[in-house]
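Structure (tokenized):
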């Protein structure tokens, strides 16, 4: 009996790498190894759309920098194709990370303040606001109210009008133009307030609506005119800069809280880099020269009107109701100067 037990013990220690081999290599049994955390990022559009570029980079960087502990996958235009579905997925945890893209104010009404016509006057002002006290305050609100953690704020740039009928040089050129807006009151109020006729539509419907004459045009920042193929259904691009398209990337709060502190730090450090990538890509081409360079070879006419008459209309017709609505947040924004 003693001989038999000794033989069995020796076989266990020597066989197939055995316990001796495991201990010698310093490896834990497979059952005790940490299972990688899989995090899915959903976005409505694929690369090379500007938001997708930054999110794709972020996914790859987090997977690599975590040594595979975090398996972050980016899915652009494949899992979900509507902004509200993406963010509902984040809120419920069916996806880990997502962005409302241009529909931030629809899904998170607090973000609507940034879209009030001509309230934000420069990128520097916007960055100081969102990377400071206001951004931190909104993050806290979104955690408590919606169950999501803000990873970073970004933007698609200042929005400008495109349409198939005429160049917009002054407010009266907007009269009668049916302009698509995001399905959010602040978008429609701004567009109506400076003279056009707002037609709220989700992005998925825009190109078809333009082809069918349901709308005459819409607004987009320079960075998305080519990736979203708006040039195919428009002729004029007028750089009115009528609102600032601030948005955010958010993570399901439960999934965020499940990460270890060092993993959270890794994510936030990477998020700030993704933010910088997005901002550079957006801001670097938001100019008359760059817009002409990109769009005129595609058959568009690009112009830069004087913003002052448009801003005056917005201040008179749009600002009063939103100043009252946002109160303290409005005061924090208007007090931020650069």
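Design, position by position:
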């Amino acid at each position: 009996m003693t001989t038999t037990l000794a033989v069995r013990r020796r076989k266990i220690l020597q066989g197939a790498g055995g316990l001796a081999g495991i201990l010698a290599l310093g490896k834990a049994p497979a059952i005790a190894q940490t299972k990688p955390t899989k995090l899915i990022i959903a976005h409505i559009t694929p690369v090379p759309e500007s938001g997708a570029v930054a999110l794709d980079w972020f996914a790859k960087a987090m997977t690599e920098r975590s040594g595979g502990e975090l398996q972050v996958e980016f899915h652009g235009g494949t899992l979900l194709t509507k902004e509200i579905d993406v963010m509902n997925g984040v809120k419920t945890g069916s996806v880990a990370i997502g962005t409302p893209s241009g529909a931030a104010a629809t899904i998170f009404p607090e973000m609507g303040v940034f879209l009030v016509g001509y309230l934000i006057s420069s990128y520097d002002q916007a960055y100081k606001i969102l990377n400071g006290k206001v951004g931190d305050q909104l993050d806290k609100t979104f955690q408590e109210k919606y169950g999501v953690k803000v990873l970073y704020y970004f933007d698609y740039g200042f929005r400008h009008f495109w349409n198939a009928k005429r160049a917009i040089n002054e407010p009266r050129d907007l009269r009668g133009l049916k302009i698509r807006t995001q399905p959010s009151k602040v978008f429609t109020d701004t567009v109506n307030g400076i003279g056009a006729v707002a037609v709220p539509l989700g992005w998925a419907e825009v190109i078809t609506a333009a082809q069918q004459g349901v709308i005459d045009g819409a607004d987009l920042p320079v960075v998305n005119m080519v990736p979203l193929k708006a040039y195919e259904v428009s002729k004029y691009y007028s750089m009115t800069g009528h609102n600032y398209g601030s948005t955010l990337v958010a993570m399901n709060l439960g999934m965020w809280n499940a990460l270890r502190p060092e993993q959270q730090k890794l994510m936030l450090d990477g998020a700030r880099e993704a933010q910088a990538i997005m901002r550079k890509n957006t801001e670097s081409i938001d100019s008359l020269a760059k817009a002409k360079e990109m769009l005129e070879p595609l058959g568009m006419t690009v112009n830069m009107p004087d913003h002052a008459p448009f801003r005056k209309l917005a201040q008179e017709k749009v600002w009063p109701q939103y100043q009252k609505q946002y109160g303290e947040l409005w005061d924090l924004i208007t007090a931020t100067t650069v």
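Reviewer-requested clarification: Confidence is low (pLDDT under 50) at residues 1-32. Residues 261-283 form the longest helix (23 residues).
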